[in-house]
Structure formats: C-alpha cells, structure tokens
Design goal:
Elements: E1 5-7, E2 12-13, E3 22-28, E4 33-38, E5 43-47, E6 53-57, E7 62-68, E8 73-77, E9 80-84, E10 91-95, E11 104-111, E12 117-123, E13 132-137, E14 143-150, E15 153-158, E16 164-169, E17 174-179, E18 191-195, E19 203-208, E20 214-218, E21 223-227, E22 233-238, E23 244-250, E24 256-261, E25 275-279, E26 289-290
Parallel strand pairs: 1-22, 7-26
Antiparallel strand pairs: 2-25, 3-4, 4-5, 5-6, 7-8, 8-9, 9-10, 11-12, 12-13, 13-14, 15-16, 16-17, 17-18, 19-20, 20-21, 21-22, 23-24, 24-25
Amino acid sequence: MTAPRIIRPDVRSVIQQPLTVGESPVWDEETGTLWFVDIQAPALVRLSASGKIDRFDMPAAIGALGLCRDHRIVVALQTGVHLFDPVSGDFELVSDPVGRHINCRLNDGKVGPDGHFWIGSFSEAKPQTDEAALYRVGADGRTRTVATGLTSSNGLAWSPDGRRMYHSDSRQCFLQAFDFDPDTGDLGDGRRLRGFTEDEGRPDGATTDRDGFYWSAGVSAGCLNRISPEGEIVEIYILPVAAPTMPCFGGPDLRTLFVTSLSTDRPGRFEAGTVIAFDVDAEGLPPFRFGADHPPG
C-alpha cells in the first residue's frame, strides 16, 4: 500500500460571517450559486457569484439541502423534509421520516441519480444510540427506510456512472458502498470499504470526482481525505480549519472545492465555522435535482 500524498492547498476564505455548524454545500451550476446550511442557527444560506449573501431563517434545525427541478430547495429540517421557495418563503412538507418517537434529527442528505432525496438521521440521545437510519424520499412523499442501526448517517455520494452509492457513519467511523440502480434507486448489499481513526479523520460529509474518487471531510483531523474506489486514502489535504464538515465541487469548471466547517475549541482556542475554497487538479460532477423523471418507487 502506497503512503498517501500530503497536500497543503492554497486556501481562500469564502465568507466573513461566522457559522455555528456549516454543512451541506451544494453548487448550482445553472446560476453559479453556492448553497449551504448553518445547522443550529438555523439557516439556509445562498452565496451568489457576485459575493452577495442571502440568508433564509429556518423554523427548525436544518441538516441538509438539495436542488429541485422547479428551482425550489429541498431541505431536511428537524420537523421533516420540506420544499422551500426562496422567492415566496413558503414551505411544503414532503415527508417526516423520523417522527417524534425517537431522539434523532435529520442530518446529511443529497439528491441521488434517481431524483430522490436520500437523507440520514443523527442520534441526539446522550449517550448516542444506534437508532439512526437512512431514508429515500420521493417528490410524492413516499419514503423508504433503506439502512438502520446507524448512529450518525453521513457521507452520501455516488460514483460518476451512478451505479455505486457511498455512505458513512461518523460515530461508528466506517465507510461503506452499495451497488445502486440509478433508475429505480434500488440498493444492493452494503460492503465496508474502510474504518477510520480519529487521527485519520472521522468521516463526515463527502463528494466524488469525475474519476471516481471519494472526498471525505475528516472532521476530527482538520483534513480532507481523497479515497480510491477500493477504499485506500491516496491524498490528504491539510486544511486551515480544525473541523471540516463537507466538501463540494463548484466553480465554472467544477474544479474548485468548497468546504464547510463547524465551530470548535478543539485547537485550544475558539474557531467559528466557515466556508473555505481551493482549486484542485480534479473535476467534480453537477448535482442531481429532486423530482427527476424516474418511475415512482
């Protein structure tokens, strides 16, 4: 096994306003806009190409977002999955996968190649339990539980051909992969690709590049791990933030990595959450959109 290449990228700051828990960056290639969330604020944030920031206050904690075909935003709130219209400010409930009977909230999520919103939950019990799960939510509200026994569902991403889905658990510290049917959203059996130590970085949010590598935010180690389809860490990007939470590709050529982070005092001093960016020698893929033309199921 070859030792991973260590890279210290030329990082630039994207925003000046501090975040509590920055998460879920999504690049809208149609408008040149970066969307992300501040979980505990709670707020949905839009950064335009001009640098203008629009902040949309949410009625409950927000875990993740996805783009919709009709230009609304699908948001995962404490109260369920909703469609949010940034123009009118209106919300429309799609599904409440978790309900109120267990102590979990919706966490990491992404729109998949099947046009559905894949969203996982996070145990808020103290100590945490394995009651969290992963759900598949359709635009018609139909919801399917696809994985259980989780503590902190995270790291959703798909291979370039849409035939493999990646998924991690940040607390159980593993990365797994599923065979995936991009037309039906059906999953094969999950298989573990690797586990992680705290020093390597607990696997938080993630993305994939056009060459099929998986980029995982190492939230406990201040780094971004680029991982081969076989599960080997091939590159480690050392970041100037202590707790990166999720990367996404953006920019006009999809060769800029945007990375969100959360507030922490882990370095021995308080560091607010933020969004950073840097250019890489890799190309991302545009995001999928909720409500795509696929058969229901």
